[in-house]
């Protein structure tokens, strides 16, 4: 009798688990079907709310080039296009939702946006800033949604799995449409100086004479850029402490502008260099993914 009760209990548990799985699948599939049908209905009324990265039922991305130290920007675009010839004929207003873990701070450039009918596109940026120490292999998950509320409601979303990859040196560019300047972030993860082939700690380096220190480096950075696109902020310490090598200027009109220079950065350091944009409608954000080419070319020489 006891054995029979135990067998019936196991069977009941299996049935309950099966029903629970079926219910979850049914709800998820039902939501998927509802979204597809709803989207078909509103598109039949000439309403299009789309994106190159966000999707009707969500899309997942894995990115594994974050250094875990600097802020990481995501740029999200939305549009009112069905194709290159068919658009929504009214403005579209939408809310922006960002969901992120407590280990980072997610800061959207705005909480609400508008796609004007004649512009056809709009965008927003999410800056992910670390609030704790991350190690190589760590991952944070960020979800963003754009939810239109006029003239019809539609939700599109994406989830980013941002992985930490530690490197000796990394860099990124923070920017957004409308900003007057962009910021180059340089991260040197090497924790020592190389002094003529001999490793020196920061404390040992500080005990050297200025002449001896001049023979040491942790990383040497060479920046090359077109001053018709970006102009170096001449108050930058990197410029005032530049090396005599790899220095070039370019003549524009009757003025000379820096186009290339080099400098040293300290061990375990984060260095920011500001460049003023000649076109504020441009967006020079660079994270090193999807085959991007940075507006500022960066070459780093580190100890072998």
Q: Would you give an account of this structure?
A:
The chain has 304 residues and is α+β, with helices and mostly antiparallel strands. The protein folds into three domains: 1-44; 60-164, Immunoglobulin-like (Sandwich), CATH 2.60.40; 169-301, no CATH class. 18% of the residues lie in helices and 42% in strands. The chain contains four helices and 19 strands. The protein has helices at 2-44, 202-206, 210-213, 237-240, and strands spanning 60-66, 72-79, 92-99, 104-108, 112-115, 121-130, 139-150, 154-164, 169-174, 181-188, 193-195, 198-200, 216-217, 219-225, 230-232, 248-252, 255-265, 269-277, 296-301.
Write out key terms for the chains shown.
19 strands; five-stranded mixed beta sheet; 42% strand; 304 residues; 4 helices; Immunoglobulin-like; 18% helix; 3 domains; alpha+beta; four-stranded antiparallel beta sheet; single chain
Number of domains: 3
Radius of gyration: 26 Å
Helical region count? 4
What is the quaternary state of this protein?
A: single chain
- For the termini, the CA-CA separation is 75 Å
Largest sheet: 5 strands, mixed
Which segments are poorly predicted (pLDDT under 50) over 5 or more consecutive residues? none
- Percent strand: 35-45%
The number of distinct β-strands equals 19
What structural class is derived from the secondary structure elements? alpha+beta
Q: Residue-averaged pLDDT, rounded? A: 87
| Major β-sheet strand ordering | 1-8-7-3-5
């Amino acid at each position: 009798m006891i054995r029979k009760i135990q067998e019936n209990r196991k069977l009941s548990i299996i049935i309950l688990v099966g029903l629970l799985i079926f219910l979850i699948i049914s709800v998820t599939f039902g939501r998927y079907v509802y979204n597809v049908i709803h989207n078909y209905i509103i598109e039949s009324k000439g309403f299009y709310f789309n994106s190159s990265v966000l999707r009707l039922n969500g899309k997942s991305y894995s990115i594994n080039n974050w250094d875990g130290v600097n802020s990481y920007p995501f740029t999200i675009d939305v549009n009112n296009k069905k194709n290159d010839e068919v658009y929504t004929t009214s403005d579209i207003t939408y809310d922006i939702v960002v969901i992120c873990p407590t280990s980072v701070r997610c800061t959207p450039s705005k909480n609400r946006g508008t796609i004007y009918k004649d512009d056809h596109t709009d965008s927003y940026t999410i800056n992910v800033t670390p609030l704790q120490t991350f190690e190589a292999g760590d991952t944070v998950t960020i979800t963003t949604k754009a939810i239109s509320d006029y003239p019809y409601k539609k939700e599109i979303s994406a989830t980013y799995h941002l992985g930490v990859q530690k490197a000796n040196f990394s860099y990124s560019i923070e920017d957004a449409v409308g900003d007057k300047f962009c910021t180059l972030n340089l991260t040197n993860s090497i924790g020592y100086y190389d002094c003529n082939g001999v490793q020196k700690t920061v404390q040992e380096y500080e005990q050297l004479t200025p002449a001896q220190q001049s023979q040491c480096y942790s990383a040497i950075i060479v920046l090359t850029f077109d001053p018709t696109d970006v102009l170096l902020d001449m108050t930058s310490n990197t410029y005032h402490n530049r090396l005599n090598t790899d220095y070039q200027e370019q003549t524009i009109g009757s003025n000379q502008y820096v186009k290339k220079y080099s400098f040293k950065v300290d061990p375990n350091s984060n260095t920011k260099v500001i460049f003023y944009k000649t076109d504020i409608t441009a967006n020079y954000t660079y994270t090193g993914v999807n085959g991007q080419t940075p507006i500022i070319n960066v070459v780093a020489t580190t100890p072998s």
